Amino acid sequence: MSNAIESAALRLRKAAETHAPCAPIRDLIAPDDVAAAYAVQEINTKYWLARGRRLVGRKIGLTAIAVQKQLGVDRPDFGLLFEDMRALEGAAIPFARLMQPKVEAEIAIVLKKALTKSAHSVADIADATDFACAAIEIVGSRIANWDIKLADTIADNASSSHFVLGARQAKLDAIDLVNCAMTMSRRGETVSSGSGAACMGNPLNAAAWLADAMVKYGRPLQAGDIILTGALGPMVAVATGDVVEVWIEGLGEVRASFGH
Q1: Contacts for 111-116: CB closer than 8 Å, 24+ residues apart
Q2: Which pLDDT does position 69 carry in this prediction?
Q3: Strands 243-248 and 181-186
Q4: pLDDT tens for residues 160-203?
Q5: What is the pLDDT of residue 66?
Q6: Spatial contact of 78 and 55, defined as CB atoms under 8 Å apart
Q7: Can you give the pTM of this predicted structure?
Q8: How many domains does the chain have?
Q9: Residues 6 or more apart from 79 whose CB is under 8 A from it?
Q10: In degrees to the nearest 10, what's the CA dihedral of 162, 100, 52, 208?
Q11: What's the CA gap between 256 and 260, in Å, rounded?
Q12: How many angstroms separate the CA atoms of 210 and 195, rounded?
């Protein structure tokens, strides 16, 4: 492992531990070096697992074409979800725990089977899915002012922070994942809208990409894993005191509130 990769991992970890945003890591690894960026992510994943954090799933980022173009890429990325990133719908998330937070409306799926093949189809994902639910992902960046390129966000665990899952659980055959409408409101005002098709045409396309990637990187998806499949509309910044409500057709509502 190169000193640059170790140094990048340490910089991001210290920023997370101190809640003091750091400089981008582009002085240490090239801005488009995906392999090095995932190596940084894996160092910090092992660090956190060794200190008792529990892995419960993955998030998929960069599923929107507009965001891919912004970062000069043609594929999504992934980050890991730990149990302590889960926020309860009825409890305010302390703002002090967050770093430059923004929110996204997503469809989450929870697996009932492991996904271990080298290549997965949408049918494989559907067969392995227990249920879907509405979700809010709170993204955050350890890098100051969201000054990120592709390697920065991948290394920073895909700019992940927290997530909230809605209470309503639906089987896949009961919902239209492609055409379902989404509306997000903040303090009662609509701030984002979209549909399932905004997530790579179908959220299951994103999940199939993820399943293949996790086998490639040596951490295959397991039964019980949560997958945040990607944003259905534009992300929105939040502040102390905000209440965000997301409605997804067929999946109902989910709410995230932000305390002091």
Answers
A1: 111/221, 111/222, 111/223, 111/224, 111/225, 111/227, 112/223, 112/224, 113/223, 114/220, 114/221, 114/222, 114/223, 115/211, 115/214, 115/215, 115/220, 115/221, 116/215, 116/220
A2: 73
A3: antiparallel
A4: 999 999 999 999 999 999 999 999 999 889 999 999 999 999 99
A5: 67
A6: no
A7: 0.96
A8: 1
A9: 41, 58, 59, 61, 157, 158, 159, 160
A10: 50
A11: 14
A12: 20
Q: How far apart are CA 141 and CA 102, in angstroms?
A: 9
Task: Please choose, from the candidates 82, 11, 19, 17, the residue with its C-alpha nearest in 3D space to the C-alpha of residue 46.
Answer: 82
Whole-angstrom Cα distance, residue 101 to residue 95?
9
Q: What is the pLDDT of residue 65?
A: 77
Whole-number Å distance between alpha carbons of 193 and 84 = 28
For the CA atoms of the chain, what is the radius of gyration? 17
Could you tell me the pLDDT band of residue 7, with boundaries at 50, 70 and 90?
A: very high
pLDDT tens per residue across span 66-88: 677 766 777 899 999 999 999 99
Tokens 């100051």 label which residue? 144
CATH code, domain carrying 46:
3.90.850.10
Of the pLDDT bands very low, low, confident and very high (cuts 50, 70, 90), residue 206 is very high
Domain that holds residue 181: 3-259
Which position has the token pair 């390697």? 151
DSSP track, 178-233:
TT-EEEEEETTEEEEEEEGGGTTTSHHHHHHHHHHHHHHTT--B-TT-EEEEEESS
Distance of CA 99 to the CA centre of its chain: 15
- Residue position matching structure tokens 């697992």: 49
Query: Which ranges of 30-96 does DSSP label H, i.e. alpha helix?
Result: 34-50, 65-71
Question: Residue 211: which region, alpha, beta or left (left: phi > 0; alpha: psi -120 to 50)?
Answer: alpha
